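Incident log, structure service

09:12 report received: a user says their structure output differs between two submissions of the same chain.
09:20 pulled the input from the user's history:
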Amino acid sequence: MAKKRKAAGATLGAGIAFVLFGIIFFCVSLGITMDAKDFGETAEETTAVVTDVQKHRVRRNKKYRTEYDVYVQYEIEGITYNEELSGGNGAMRVGQYLTVYYDPMNRRDVRSTKSSSGANVFAIVFSLVFAALGIWMGIVPAVKSSKRKKLKETGEQATALITDVVLDRSIKINKRHPYKAQCEMTDPVTGEKYIYSSESYMEDIHYMIGQPVTVYYDPADRSKYYVDLDSVDENTIDSGPAVYDFR
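09:34 re-ran on a clean worker, output below:
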């Protein structure tokens, strides 16, 4: 029987992508922050005149925005420099005099401010949050997988009946909610009824309604369980019309 694709598998992949993006973004942001800090500690001040302002359109996040390249001329110890100003903006005009800051060890490194570490610190925090979210998305499926394995090895096994299939509205992957099977079982000794819910699956599993399914549970705490949909014998299921649930 082909294994069904759990929604947890999709979130695991997304979690790994989040972690990688967070790590890369963190490293870049940290590098920029440290550079800004070092620059601010040694930068010297001078006066420059704006010689050119170039406006161009760029596309970011599917939206177009206007950016500006500002060029300035300044003199240090009798030597004239013509460089692009880091931190230039559209409010600057040709012929305007500005107070600028330069690296005394690299006089061509000229910036409009001493430091932009505030924005970079925010970027670092954002990258850490992104990475933490990815770790959470990756760890939770791993923990669930470990619990499933333990239940199958040490728990008790019983047969339940799948009574319904519902959408798991707590998750949305590629604009789709996954499916969860609801099942019931009755203890033959006590007559007590137990209602369980499966993990989330990306495939539409409505065709399993009415089929028996194996449930593994902890006899000391029956709230700890695992509904094994892979135990459903799909060869015994009559192929009926497709069901499309747009709720």
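09:41 both user submissions now match this output. Likely a transient worker issue. Closing.
09:42 reviewer note: The beta strands are 44-60, 63-76, 79-84, 97-103, 106-111, 156-167, 179-186, 193-197, 212-218, 221-228. The mean pLDDT is 83.
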